[in-house]
UniProtKB/TrEMBL annotation:
Catalytic activity, EC: 5.1.99.1
Enzyme kind, highest EC tier: isomerase
Lineage: superkingdom: Bacteria
Gene of this entry: mce
Stretches assigned to the VOC domain: 5-140
Protein name: Methylmalonyl-CoA epimerase
Organism expressing this protein natively: Novosphingobium pokkalii
GO molecular function terms attached to this record: methylmalonyl-CoA epimerase activity
Assigned keywords, A-Z: Isomerase, Metal-binding
CDD domains: MMCE
Classification via Pfam families: Glyoxalase_4
InterPro entries named among the record's database cross-references: Glyas_Bleomycin-R_OHBP_Dase (IPR029068), MeMalonyl-CoA_epimerase (IPR017515), MMCE/EMCE_epimerase (IPR051785), VOC_core (IPR037523)
Similarity comment text for this entry: Belongs to the methylmalonyl-CoA epimerase family.
Amino acid sequence: MKLGRLNHVGVAVPSMPDAIATYRDVMGASLITQPFDMPEQGVKVAFVNTPGQGGTEGTQIELIEPLGETSPIAGFLAKNPAGGQHHLCYEVADIEAARAWFTAQGKRILGPTRIGAHGTPIFFLHPKDMLGQLTEIMETPRGDH
Protein backbone atom coordinates (compact mmCIF):
# COMPACT_ATOMS: atom_id res chain seq x y z
CA MET A 1 0.00 0.00 0.00
CA LYS A 2 1.38 3.38 -0.98
CA LEU A 3 0.20 6.51 0.81
CA GLY A 4 -0.47 9.41 -1.54
CA ARG A 5 -0.14 13.14 -1.08
CA LEU A 6 -1.55 15.21 1.74
CA ASN A 7 -4.90 16.29 0.32
CA HIS A 8 -5.98 18.75 3.01
CA VAL A 9 -5.80 19.84 6.61
CA GLY A 10 -9.14 19.88 8.44
CA VAL A 11 -9.74 22.86 10.72
CA ALA A 12 -12.70 23.02 13.10
CA VAL A 13 -14.17 26.52 13.25
CA PRO A 14 -16.84 28.11 15.44
CA SER A 15 -17.98 30.44 12.60
CA MET A 16 -17.71 29.55 8.92
CA PRO A 17 -18.08 33.17 7.67
CA ASP A 18 -15.39 34.39 10.09
CA ALA A 19 -13.05 31.53 9.11
CA ILE A 20 -13.49 32.17 5.39
CA ALA A 21 -12.82 35.89 5.93
CA THR A 22 -9.67 35.14 7.96
CA TYR A 23 -8.26 32.75 5.37
CA ARG A 24 -9.13 35.16 2.55
CA ASP A 25 -8.09 38.46 4.14
CA VAL A 26 -5.14 37.39 6.30
CA MET A 27 -3.77 34.31 4.53
CA GLY A 28 -4.58 35.24 0.93
CA ALA A 29 -6.54 32.01 0.40
CA SER A 30 -9.16 31.58 -2.28
CA LEU A 31 -12.51 29.89 -1.73
CA ILE A 32 -12.72 26.58 -3.61
CA THR A 33 -16.26 25.65 -2.59
CA GLN A 34 -19.11 27.59 -1.06
CA PRO A 35 -20.05 26.22 2.37
CA PHE A 36 -22.27 23.15 2.14
CA ASP A 37 -23.99 20.93 4.69
CA MET A 38 -23.10 17.28 5.22
CA PRO A 39 -25.91 16.23 7.59
CA GLU A 40 -24.82 12.58 7.59
CA GLN A 41 -21.55 13.71 9.22
CA GLY A 42 -23.07 16.55 11.23
CA VAL A 43 -20.93 19.28 9.67
CA LYS A 44 -20.91 22.27 7.35
CA VAL A 45 -17.83 22.30 5.11
CA ALA A 46 -16.00 24.74 2.85
CA PHE A 47 -12.63 24.33 1.17
CA VAL A 48 -10.11 27.13 0.73
CA ASN A 49 -6.78 26.99 -1.07
CA THR A 50 -3.76 28.80 0.29
CA PRO A 51 -1.54 30.46 -2.28
CA GLY A 52 1.54 28.55 -3.34
CA GLN A 53 4.98 30.08 -3.81
CA GLY A 54 6.77 30.37 -7.12
CA GLY A 55 3.78 29.13 -9.12
CA THR A 56 3.29 26.00 -7.03
CA GLU A 57 -0.15 24.80 -6.02
CA GLY A 58 -1.20 25.84 -2.52
CA THR A 59 -2.59 23.66 0.23
CA GLN A 60 -6.28 22.92 0.69
CA ILE A 61 -7.78 23.69 4.08
CA GLU A 62 -11.13 22.10 4.93
CA LEU A 63 -13.08 24.41 7.22
CA ILE A 64 -15.52 22.41 9.36
CA GLU A 65 -18.35 23.92 11.38
CA PRO A 66 -20.78 21.86 13.49
CA LEU A 67 -24.35 21.30 12.32
CA GLY A 68 -26.04 21.21 15.70
CA GLU A 69 -25.05 20.19 19.21
CA THR A 70 -24.66 16.48 18.39
CA SER A 71 -22.01 17.12 15.74
CA PRO A 72 -18.63 15.54 16.52
CA ILE A 73 -17.14 18.96 15.76
CA ALA A 74 -19.29 20.51 18.52
CA GLY A 75 -17.46 18.32 21.04
CA PHE A 76 -14.10 19.36 19.59
CA LEU A 77 -15.07 23.06 19.81
CA ALA A 78 -16.29 22.61 23.40
CA LYS A 79 -12.68 21.70 24.27
CA ASN A 80 -11.18 24.22 21.81
CA PRO A 81 -13.62 27.18 21.62
CA ALA A 82 -11.47 29.17 19.20
CA GLY A 83 -11.26 26.20 16.84
CA GLY A 84 -8.14 24.42 15.69
CA GLN A 85 -6.56 21.73 13.57
CA HIS A 86 -8.87 18.72 13.54
CA HIS A 87 -7.32 16.20 11.12
CA LEU A 88 -4.90 15.50 8.30
CA CYS A 89 -6.16 13.83 5.12
CA TYR A 90 -4.03 11.64 2.86
CA GLU A 91 -4.95 10.18 -0.52
CA VAL A 92 -4.78 6.53 -1.55
CA ALA A 93 -5.50 4.90 -4.89
CA ASP A 94 -7.76 2.15 -3.48
CA ILE A 95 -9.69 2.84 -0.27
CA GLU A 96 -10.55 -0.81 0.47
CA ALA A 97 -6.95 -1.96 -0.03
CA ALA A 98 -5.83 0.86 2.29
CA ARG A 99 -8.42 -0.11 4.90
CA ALA A 100 -7.21 -3.72 4.81
CA TRP A 101 -3.56 -2.63 5.00
CA PHE A 102 -4.08 -0.29 8.00
CA THR A 103 -6.10 -3.00 9.77
CA ALA A 104 -3.29 -5.52 9.15
CA GLN A 105 -0.87 -2.98 10.67
CA GLY A 106 -2.98 -2.97 13.86
CA LYS A 107 -4.37 0.53 13.33
CA ARG A 108 -7.88 1.18 14.63
CA ILE A 109 -10.37 2.46 12.08
CA LEU A 110 -13.13 4.72 13.36
CA GLY A 111 -16.43 3.70 11.78
CA PRO A 112 -17.29 2.46 8.34
CA THR A 113 -15.97 3.70 5.02
CA ARG A 114 -18.26 6.50 3.85
CA ILE A 115 -18.42 9.27 1.29
CA GLY A 116 -16.50 12.39 2.30
CA ALA A 117 -16.69 16.05 1.34
CA HIS A 118 -14.81 15.49 -1.94
CA GLY A 119 -17.39 12.90 -2.97
CA THR A 120 -14.97 9.98 -2.60
CA PRO A 121 -14.79 7.17 -0.02
CA ILE A 122 -13.03 7.96 3.27
CA PHE A 123 -12.31 6.49 6.68
CA PHE A 124 -10.57 7.79 9.80
CA LEU A 125 -7.72 6.29 11.82
CA HIS A 126 -7.70 6.57 15.61
CA PRO A 127 -5.43 9.39 16.84
CA LYS A 128 -3.78 7.13 19.43
CA ASP A 129 -2.49 4.95 16.58
CA MET A 130 -1.27 7.89 14.48
CA LEU A 131 1.02 9.90 16.77
CA GLY A 132 -1.92 11.70 18.41
CA GLN A 133 -3.33 12.94 15.09
CA LEU A 134 -6.80 12.10 13.77
CA THR A 135 -6.03 10.93 10.23
CA GLU A 136 -8.45 10.76 7.31
CA ILE A 137 -7.69 8.39 4.45
CA MET A 138 -9.49 9.20 1.22
CA GLU A 139 -9.59 7.66 -2.22
CA THR A 140 -7.95 10.05 -4.68
CA PRO A 141 -10.61 12.33 -6.18
CA ARG A 142 -11.21 11.86 -9.89
CA GLY A 143 -12.88 15.26 -10.45
CA ASP A 144 -12.12 18.90 -9.85
CA HIS A 145 -11.61 18.86 -6.07
